[in-house]
Amino acid sequence: MKKKITIIGVGLIGGSLAINFKNSGQYQVIGYDVKEHQLQMAEKLGVIHRGVMDLREAVRDSDYTFLSAPVGQLYDLLDTILELKFKQGVIITDTGSTKGKLVEYTSKFLEKGAYFIGGHPMAGSHKSGVSAANERLFENAYYVLTPGPNIPKWVVDELISLLSLTRAKIIQMDPYEHDQVVGAISHFPHIIAALLTNQVAEYSEQNKWYSRLAAGGFKDITRIASSNPEMWRDILIHNQQVMIDLAEDWKRGFDQIIQMVSQLEVQAIEEFFRSARDFRNQLPEKGKGALNPLYDLFIDVPDHPGVIGKVTTLLGEAEISITNIQILEIREDIMGVLRISFRNENDLERAKNLLKDSGYHVYLME
Ligand SMILES: NC(=O)c1ccc[n+]([C@@H]2O[C@H](COP(=O)([O-])OP(=O)(O)OC[C@H]3O[C@@H](n4cnc5c(N)ncnc54)[C@H](O)[C@@H]3O)[C@@H](O)[C@H]2O)c1
Ligand SMILES: O=C(O)C(=O)C[C@]1(C(=O)O)C=C[C@@H](O)C=C1
């Protein structure tokens, strides 16, 4: 009998994990979510084998349980699971963006016969929900595990082996070190992006040109301001002290550059940009083969031979390049969903209008 994997919270991250596990053919993948429509969509897209709305049923025979709900939900979920009947030796892990407090909180699982290992895939998107799930989301990305000191090595190895299906690079880290580092490279940047966006939004109330002229630079630095507000509220709250410390460093840096500008310290200003450029330029690019989840278009297609060819021909004739194409589900007599990725927003927009005008039902995902 196949081992059972339960995904609690079948959204972007849970759904992307689920696809990898399901497509391996080695596991039975069950989804649980508080939103029934997410489960229905997950089943329709073929992301999970089956969705259940009852947590008791979801965890009962599970060999591996993934908690991929928002960070603020994890503690209550863990408390509930602890009271339920679960398999002895089950490996429970999460995908939450913060790790320190959670790992401390979960040490009590061990005495109940379950192993908890904190986890955090360092890949994602500003999009939410299972419709944005992507089989290749984690490919080449780092996936951090933060096992507590009492978790046996063979248990960690077993989880690593399962996660290798995602083709992520799995590393282990101290949970508080994780929060420190990820606070600086992920959590704090979301504050900056939102702050900058709010500042410009305020100006644009008086003058429409702010939003009309907002081009590449502004859009690049503020892409993540489109992220899910509830998710980011939870993350900041659960990494509170790190955020406060980073803000102090930011204020110091900000005072310095403003001082340079007001004193017209031209050399220092140039050096400020040069050192940033040098560090930015040596950051590794995302590995080859990984999808850029940004410019995706979804198209409902009937399961007729040649339908993909018709769509790609239409795009090709209009000289719109595609970077990837994926069938999210094709079963007999059932409408399938085609996901086509484009290089930029302009291509995406043109393709959307073209396909719509040709009678296809096309949509973007939040
Ligand atoms: N989005 C990212 O870029 C990213 C990357 C890595 C890790 N994470 C972390 O992964 C987790 C999931 O993020 P996501 O982007 O997939 O969010 P998402 O909103 O796409 O999915 C979360 C899912 O959890 C469900 N949910 C909410 N409360 C629940 C509960 N009490 N029980 C069961 N299901 C519940 C929601 O209905 C939703 O389907 C978060 O903890 C987040 O911090 C996110
Ligand atoms: O690419 C994005 O939109 C993300 O915000 C992904 C991102 C990140 O900050 O890099 C966000 C949260 C996660 O916990 C991990 C990854």
TrEMBL record:
Keywords: Amino-acid biosynthesis, Aromatic amino acid biosynthesis, NAD, Oxidoreductase, Tyrosine biosynthesis. Residues 3-291 form the Prephenate/arogenate dehydrogenase domain. Gene3D superfamilies: 3.30.70.260, 6-phosphogluconate dehydrogenase C-terminal like domain, NAD(P)-binding Rossmann-like Domain. InterPro entries: 6-PGluconate_DH-like_C_sf (IPR008927), ACT-like_dom_sf (IPR045865), ACT_dom (IPR002912), NAD(P)-bd_dom_sf (IPR036291), PDH_C (IPR046825), PDH_N (IPR046826), Preph/Arog_dehydrog (IPR050812), Prephen_DH (IPR003099). Pathway: Amino-acid biosynthesis; L-tyrosine biosynthesis; (4-hydroxyphenyl)pyruvate from prephenate (NAD(+) route): step 1/1. Pfam families: ACT (PF01842), PDH_C (PF20463), PDH_N (PF02153). It comes from the Bacteria. It catalyses: prephenate + NAD(+) = 3-(4-hydroxyphenyl)pyruvate + CO2 + NADH. One of its GO terms (biological process) is tyrosine biosynthetic process. Its EC number is 1.3.1.12. GO terms for molecular function: NAD+ binding; prephenate dehydrogenase (NAD+) activity; prephenate dehydrogenase (NADP+) activity. Residues 296-366 form the ACT domain. Belongs to the prephenate/arogenate dehydrogenase family. This is Prephenate dehydrogenase.
